[in-house]
Amino acid sequence: MDKKGISPGRYFDLGFFLFMLTDSLEQDLTKIKYLSSLIVLRKFWKSHFCFFLIFLFLIVPLKGWAQKSEPVTLDTLVVTAQKSEETFETGDVDLDQTPAFFSIIKKEEFAGKMEDLAKIIEKEAGIQVRQNGGLGSFSSISLRGSSSEQVLIFLDGILLNDASGGGVDLSNIALADVEAIEIYRGTTPINFGKASIGGVVNIRTQRSKKGLKANISCGYGSFNTRQLSGYLNHKPGQWDYLVSADYLGSDNDFKFINNNGTQYNKDDDQEEKRNNAQFEQQNVLAKLGFDFNPDARIDLANQWFYKEQGLPSWNNSEKTETLFTTQRNISTLKLTLNDIGPWHINTSSNLNYTNKIEEYDDSHGHVGLGKQLTRYYTTSTGAGIFIEWLTQTNSLTLMADARNEIYNPDDKLKDSNPNDSSRVTYTTGLQDSLYLLQSKLIITPALRYSYIKDELESGTSIWGINLEKRSREKTYTSPQIGIKYTPITWLTFKSNLASYVREPSFFELFGDRGFFVGNMDLKAEEGVNFDAGAEINLQSTPDWLNRFSVHGAFFKSEVENMITRVYDARGIGKADNISKARIQGIEGGVQVELFDFLNMIANATWQKTENINEIKAFDGKELPGRFKKSYLARLEALYRGAKFYTEYNIQKGMYYDTANLLEAEDKYEINAGVSCLYKSFLISFGVKNIKDEHYEDFNGYPMPGRSYFGSVKFEF
Q1: Residue 708, Cα to own-chain centre: how many angstroms?
Q2: DSSP string, 605-665
Q3: Cβ atoms within 10 A of the Cβ of 136, count?
Q4: CA distances from 299 to 174, 211, 240, 242 (A)
Q5: Residue 510 — pLDDT band, cuts 50, 70, 90?
Q6: Closest Cα to residue 349, out of 202, 241, 203, 193?
């Protein structure tokens, strides 16, 4: 740990201080026993035996801590808003009890809009999304200053991050399928098999509900953007099925200012239409379920996704024909068994299979270095189990997850195969949520253990020499602890401390296509996250104030062995552990609902990132691609069946490059829209980027200016 950082002992002191803010503690053996445990644990933490801290929390006898522990049924023990929802399932995160700082975006907040997942997510505090073009273009996410590779994306609990490398492209997740978006910043609940340095985004697809429900929607907008989707859900009894289908496409031929690669020479700047940025995608989600009884259910789900998109050249040439296609199929079999045995244990287990085929076709050499036609095959087979035991004094959770991923790129223009790689991952985790002071105080220690084995089955060096099989095995232990204290119903304090790991990707370990050399000696990125904050939620207040909520948190992250890509004079790249990162900041938000017709929302994030690098030109610089400041203000007005909204999004202080020589322009974006519910029709119209500002998330990749979109949705 760098001397400038906060020591683990200080982190523990803060958690200890939050604990002592309780209104009263019973003066009996329970108090003495618990406080003695905390003192011992602090000594171990300061000695950096983090795993032993978690272990002690887990093995201390549960009986006698706060009151006598008696096993009870799920319905008797847990009565929360989240668990009472019709679609809540065993294995979901209990939002009333988790100490993690999270955001939940429900479907009604984006239903009927012609949006993509990236634009929906970026409106939350602590989140930044970057796109390299218009709708459907590559979109990456950063949580609290992390890189996109340090953020894990799950689809119904199935990990989408590939071992091959790179962050998940959010544009490849169809919004029509989504029921809710769960965002966990910094701390990762044990429900997910892996934990990450930045946090987790879990995309929850639609689930079957009782009765018969169906809808169809269509939309059209600027740049010949078109959308069509349909949904059918039928649950007459024990059997149920759900089908959701979606089509989205756009020419993306928006106008922009092309500087022809000469940023400081304005004489050759000219307004052009974006060429070869079109895309089309289709998506089908099908689910079949059967309830054996109220406590036993089986689900079978399959999601198919296909997308073809053009890739513009750096000079926006009209002749560019480069294409990138993606085809992905995810199949899942899930069994849920609740109230098992005398301890009333709840379980959820699953088998899943993912098959993805990507093809990069630059046969004419319009975009990359030389001609290229490569097809990438990625298959992943996994199994997982989630077990929870709920009592009046604690909730004990165990998870185990196994995954085998095979990556086979195939160069269609050469006889040799670039790299055939595989990764086997085993992860197990244990978490115990302890309820104290009549559940006003919840302490949640957890521990994960991971085993990873990587193999390069075959390969070719940059000189065309066949490489022998190579492999490496690593194990990682990641402890974490969270505290949630609710002294009164409307006030909550939270604090979390966690250790996380991001293992190197195949691209970084083994190289790719001769232009990037592998490095088998790479160490995994290891991070320590800390956050602390408070939330206020007031409801049923005076008639004119329906709701008032405000939240704020301080966060800090330190990453050791950060993987940096360096290039030599020939342009050959290599990944190396030559830097560290220090990130800290403050995030917050407020929401006010006045009467029944006015809703005001505001979010803000201030963060500072620092690159501690062996290369002097990069040392002390801001990490590229991260904004220093981000603000969002949104106003919603409701009148009868109509809803009007306007929002102002500001992002400031970002550099494109590691040396901080290329500074991005500050972003000021105003959006507005209206939707009207008339009988069974939902009619929506929106305007994006009203001021027609030109901006680039990635240097050289312009975003659209002003655009218009409209849609109609009909509920059967």
Answers
A1: 28
A2: EEEEEEEEESSTTTTTBPPTT--SEEEEEEEEEEETTEEEEEEEEEEE--BSSTTS-SBPP
A3: 23
A4: 21, 17, 9, 11
A5: confident
A6: 193
3-state secondary structure 403-443: EEEEEEEEECCCCCCCEEEEEEEEEEEEEEEEEECCCCEEE
Across the chain, mean pLDDT equals: 84
> Taking residues 102-115, what's their average pLDDT?
84
Cα–Cα distances (Å) from 401 to 151, 404, 427, 716, in that order, read: 19, 10, 5, 40
Q: What is the DSSP letter of 92?
A: B
| Cα(189)–Cα(448) distance, integer angstroms | 11
Q: Hey, what amino acid is at 632?
A: L
Strands 629-639 and 491-502: unpaired
Contact 214, 242 (CB under 8 A): no
**pLDDT per residue over 155-199, tens digit each?**
999 999 999 887 899 999 988 889 999 999 988 999 998 888 999
Mean pLDDT on 135-151? 92
Cα–Cα distance measured from residue 548 to residue 590, given in angstroms and rounded to the nearest whole number: 8
Q: Are 349 and 385 in contact (CB under 8 A)?
A: yes
Cα 481 from chain centre = 20
- SS3 sequence, 335-395? EEEEEECCCCEEEEEEEEEEEEEEEEEECCCCCCCCCEEEEEEEEEEEEEEEEEEEECCEE
Whether the predicted pLDDT of 13 surpasses 50: no
- Chain-centroid distance of CA 498 in Å reads 17
62 pLDDT band, cuts 50/70/90, is very low
| pLDDT of 570 over the 90 cut | no
Q: At what angle do helices 29-46 and 50-59 cross, to 10 degrees?
A: 160
Q: What is the mean pLDDT of residues 38-61?
A: 38
* 3-class state of residue 480 by DSSP: strand
- Per-residue pLDDT band for 541 (boundaries 50, 70, 90) equals low
Instruction: Put residue 165 in one of left, alpha, beta given phi > 0 → left and psi -120 to 50 → alpha.
Output: left
DSSP 3-state of 110: coil
> What is the torsional sign of CA 181, 185, 188, 193?
positive
DSSP characters over 166-178: S---GGGS-GGGE
pLDDT value at 549 more than 80: yes
Q: Which helix (H) or strand (E) holds 567?
A: strand 545-567
Distance, in Å, from the CA atom of 255 to the CA atom of 274, rounded to the nearest integer, reads 6
Computed from CA positions of residues 107, 113, 119, 123, in that sequence, does the dihedral angle turn out positive or negative?
negative
**Cβ atoms of residues 549 and 535 within 8 Å:** yes
Contact 216, 229 (CB under 8 A): yes
Strands 239-250 and 279-293, bridge-based pairing: antiparallel
> CA end-to-end span of the chain, whole Å?
59
pLDDT in tens, 194-220: 888 999 999 999 999 899 999 999 999
Residues in the chain: 716
Strands 151-155 and 199-205: parallel
Q: pTM for the complete prediction?
A: 0.85
Which range among 231-245, 324-338, 407-421 shows the weakest confidence by mean pLDDT?
407-421
pLDDT at 78 over 70: no
Which whole-number Å values give the CA distances from 402 to 7, 18, 90, 226, 247, in the listed order?
Answer: 34, 37, 19, 40, 33
pLDDT of residue 71: 39
